[in-house]
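[09:14] KT: can someone run the structure on this one? pasting the chain below
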Amino acid sequence: MKNPVFTGSAVAIVTPFTDKGINYDKLSELCEFHIKNKTDAILVAGTTGEASTMPDAEHLSSIEHVVKTVAGRLPVIAGTGSNDTTHAVELTKRACDLGADAILSVTPYYNKCSQEGLYLHFKAIAEAVDKPIILYNVPSRTALNIAPQTYKRLSEIPNINAVKECNLDQVPDIAYLCKDNLNLYTGEDPMIVPMLSLGGKGVISVAANIMPEQIHNIVSSWMAGRQDEARSIQIKLLPLIRALFSDVNPIPVKAAMNLMGMGVGPCRMPLSEPSEDSLEKIRSALKLFNLI
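[09:31] RB: done, structure tokens below
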């Protein structure tokens, strides 16, 4: 059995930007906010953190800053994925040297390798470091899916610890094939309870940026045997979760945080401001939950 990196809610933390770069004071403030509000781990430089727009030096600087700010109070997971295996290995090694507790590594995008290529890609990353690796499978963004049988092969590598799975149709097959050799997290905020019901350990969450305690409580209630309570929270939060995905992530969540006065700045191009329709949905959802 592989011990999970965390159980509960890991926030896929946004990166607060100014026109000059990362707002590190604000990033520190966000980390403290999550520590105080029951977030169980912090993922830095993921999709929601807009890592794809960061040069390597800035990418690694954001990881270093979060590691130093958190100072061991929560696990810090660093996003270091790339569609270039050599680049992914180098980013992973450097993030581990900076003190990240675990790594999130997305499937290669655009060049769309074979299942054998996926296996060799993740094997190379895992063998380069001794920290836990969380695979990230998000076919809607990468046009590539990790097949359940490939998960089985990957789960036999000692430090491939978990997956952030966004293709939920195949979770039963992954659980059946990998058993305790691979911990399961959902990357879909509306589907936390279904993942938990199949043995999942929690969620890597966008919505936790603005409602961290509530997302944590879905998992903690389930793990404490209060399944009805977990289900009730999940369903209650649905209008907010839907609003946060009314445009391309992280456009809506950053807009929501700015409306709440959290001052996280804009998204970087090519991400633009939310449409008027999306902004109205976000504003209405925040009002529903008394967040503005």
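[09:33] KT: thanks! The mean pLDDT is 97.
[09:34] RB: yep, looked fine to me
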